[in-house]
Amino acid sequence: MNGLVTFANRIHDFLNATKKWDFLAPFLLRLFLSVVFISAGWNKLASFDSTVAWFGNPDWGLGLPFPAVMAFLATGAELAGGVFLLLGLATRYFAVPLMVTMLVAALSVHWDNGWFAIAPSNPATSMAQPLAAVGIPAAQQSLENSVEVGKRLTAAKGLLREHGQYGWLTEKGNFVILNNGIEFAATYFIMLLVLFFQGAGRFLSLDYWIARRFRQ
């Protein structure tokens, strides 16, 4: 028993020793998210009229009030937020509007499509399998949807093999069916939530050096 405790303590000491590198985790979160938001904001800005139309149109868009204002706020939050995340400047402040944009995206764009961003085509390996086993209706519906997705993918691939250049079409990646669920928006929200509570991290952020200089 004492030997097991000693071994566990040594492992714990080793894990504690890695904390001197803990600044890498928030830095990599910021680096990853900055690319995501700068890209999203830049795409909105590059076709701003289309963005406004999509925000306001109730038939094929979001149907939001004041679409020009909403589009401007979303574009500005993503562009400015992405740049400030990259710099590690006012990180906790900018995490808030970015989390709001993710909530709006999840609730207004992706919610009706369920969880998955890309529809699973094999119910046997779907993440919904254990949830369906305990009787969650939405998970069972997801498995049924996976069956239908698999049928359509099989049919599409068959048509392409017979009538199209299947090798050329798939040499850059496999075909999938976009489900457009909340998966990505929820993931980004959780990552931003970590930055909101933990901050930008030591050394590789302007927040750290500003706090070191001006805060006691």
> What does the radius of gyration come to?
23 Å
Residues in helix, %:
over 70%
Residue stretches low in confidence (pLDDT < 50, at least 5 long) are none
Largest sheet: none
Beta percentage is: under 5%
Decide which structural class fits the backbone. Answer: mainly alpha
The separation of the N and C termini measures 46 Å
Mean pLDDT: 93
Number of helices: 10
| Shape category | globular
Total count of strands = 0
What is the helix/strand order?
A: HHHHHHHHHH
Fold and architecture overview:
The protein has 216 residues and is mostly helical. It has 2 domains: 25-112 and 182-216; 119-177, no CATH class. It has helices at 2-17, 24-46, 48-56, 67-87, 91-110, 128-133, 137-163, 166-170, 183-198, 206-214. The radius of gyration is 23 Å and the shape is globular.
Helix-strand layout with pairing:
Layout: H1 2-17, H2 24-46, H3 48-56, H4 67-87, H5 91-110, H6 128-133, H7 137-163, H8 166-170, H9 183-198, H10 206-214
Helix pairs in contact: 2-4, 2-9, 3-4, 4-5, 5-9
Task: Tell me briefly what this model is.
The chain is mainly α and 216 residues long.
Notable characteristics:
globular, 2 domains, mainly alpha, 216 residues, 70% helix, 10 helices, 0% strand
